From TrEMBL:
InterPro entries: Aminotrans_IV, Aminotransferase-like, BCAT-like_C. It comes from Linnemannia elongata AG-77. One of its GO terms (molecular function) is catalytic activity. This is Uncharacterized protein. It comes from the Eukaryota.
Length: 279
């Protein structure tokens, strides 16, 4: 079978050295590609009208902010998202430009442009003439072996829901550092993903002691309180704020729908008119 997906890699970055962007076809998924590289800051984007990226500035801001929180102790050590004192000096120096939003935005834009051009050119089907959009996953990490930053983008067809409803399971506990989008989470959540039933779409993370609902493995969770006619969702500093969450906030603001940043609670599910996830 011919490869359907694509990757674009830019390994050496900075004002002094300009590295060539390398593009290639691949059969690997975005998840498999993330697992091929050391943990680092990542984000998942989607195209609109094939060539635009939804909330591109928001995604690059997330990358830069996450990279500021994630630290790279050096070869053979695990990624830390807390203690900056353990970061290798070479990583601090090499990643400094990419921790600035304006540099991250420019470098990511160049990478995604090159990758999308290659992806559309090499698709065997007429993706530009279809309704299909593209999922773009970007990872920025530190290569301890070559002592340089790695910036990579992966391109694959965006999956569209086949039904208006989805099934979720209550699994696991809230993650420790939700505000940093670290690809280590892709590794950590594999056990939960493997335990899901075949017809389940997502696992919802809940505090077992309080029954407060935080978020999904890769989604934000919302409930609609029937009596108060208010949308409930977890406090923003306790979850990763997805791009579509901001879209929901804009819609609610335009339609005068109240939103309360309060944990939906499983014990109060009988008080909801409905619930939904966004990703």
């Amino acid at each position: 079978m011919l490869p359907r997906n694509a990757i674009a890699i830019r390994k050496t970055l900075g004002a002094a050295t300009r590295a060539k962007i390398i593009t290639a076809a691949t059969n690997k998924t975005s998840t498999a590609t993330l697992l091929d590289y050391p943990p680092g800051a990542y984000t998942g984007m989607r195209t609109f009208d094939k060539l635009g990226i939804m909330d591109f500035t928001g995604h690059t801001t997330r990358l830069a902010n996450s990279l500021q929180q994630i630290h790279f102790p050096g070869q053979g050590a695990e990624t830390s998202v807390v203690d900056s004192s353990v970061e290798a000096a070479a990583a601090t120096k090499g990643l400094a430009p990419l921790r600035r939003l304006e540099v991250m935005k420019e470098e990511t834009m160049n990478l995604v442009k090159a990758g999308l051009k290659f992806y559309y050119k090499n698709r065997t089907d007429d993706v530009l003439g279809s309704a299909d959009e593209t999922k773009v996953t970007v990872l920025c990490t530190w290569d301890p072996e070559n002592q340089e930053p790695t910036l990579i983008a992966h391109f694959e067809p965006l999956k569209t829901p086949t039904t208006l409803r989805c099934k979720v399971e209550v699994h696991g506990s809230p993650r420790h550092h939700a505000t940093a989008k670290d690809s280590q989470w892709v590794r950590d959540r594999r056990g939960l993903e493997a335990s899901l039933d075949k017809d389940s779409n997502e696992a919802i993370l809940v505090d077992n002691s309080t029954q407060d609902i935080y978020e999904g493995l890769s989604s934000n969770f919302f409930a609609f309180d029937r009596e108060r006619r208010t949308i409930l969702t977890a406090p923003l500093n306790s979850v990763l704020q997805g791009t579509i969450l901001k879209v929901v906030m804009n819609v609610c603001n335009n339609e005068n729908i109240p939103v309360e940043f309060k944990f939906p609670n499983l014990k109060e599910a009988h008080e909801w008119e409905g619930a939904f996830i966004t990703t």
